[in-house]
Amino acid sequence: MKALYLGCCAMMTAFGVAFLFMGLVPVPLPWYHPLDRQWILEMRPHGLSMDFYGRTLYAALFSALAFVAGRALGGKLKEGLSRDQAWLWLSYGLGFLALAMCLIGYQLWPRPAAPLPIPPWYIPK
Amino acid sequence: MPTEPPHLAFGGIAQLLILFHAIVGLALCGATTHHVVVAYGYRRGVYRWRLAQIYAIVTACCYGATFTLGMLAYPTYRYYVRGLYFDRHLVWASNLFDIKENFAALGLPLALSVLLLSRVFKPAEQPELRTPYLTLVSGVWLLSWFPAIAGLIITLQRGVPA
After folding, report:
1. What is the pLDDT of residue B100?
2. Of B57, B65, B68, nearest to B31 (Cα)?
3. By CB atoms within 10 Å of each CB, which of A61, A120, B19, B58 scores lowest?
């Protein structure tokens, strides 16, 4: 139970850290270009593109590694899981997830609009 | 600029995807709410942990399915809804949508953790984990209801008049 708990806390921490890092530092991501239906690994894309899939994939891979490492580390610890330790590990996980949420809200809520040009076939309803 | 409506991935079944996205999301909100009630019972000495295991499985399955269905419909939303309409007329709705999808992604490790922990957690024997478990389940509850409510608010923008 202790190993699994530590693995889960490490997984949450890593997921939050990954979103925080990718929100602050530009990294090459697999961007999806829906009009061309293709993936391109790039830092600053041109045209209509989506980074959500790439960011989620990176965070999932990083958190999977963290889960394995956390679980292995937890299995080696001799002492049992105290109430304070349980809260400490959980607060790392939830804290980084909360920080990532704050950053996302801070960056996205005031984001300026980037409307696409109206195509000739478009009929407003 | 496309001279005819572009053929986007899953564009032909996007409405169906959104319909199932909403139905499974509804089940998710129900399952996670029931799970919070059961986990709160641990603090009062009511240990219905087998029921919690069922709710954890349903929550994780519904969370994954809702998230996947939303991701499949996302390219269609990105072009037709956000690109051509929201970014021109309702910028706040466009930004709220992206916030809620990112928050939903951040709930994935929480939902998975609750599923894994519920398999081995015995509240009567591990009192030190009762409140942390309730906190985790409450986190999943929050990250299920927030996207659901935000999604409803966004959808209402072209629904009934305010």
Report:
1. 97
2. B57
3. A120
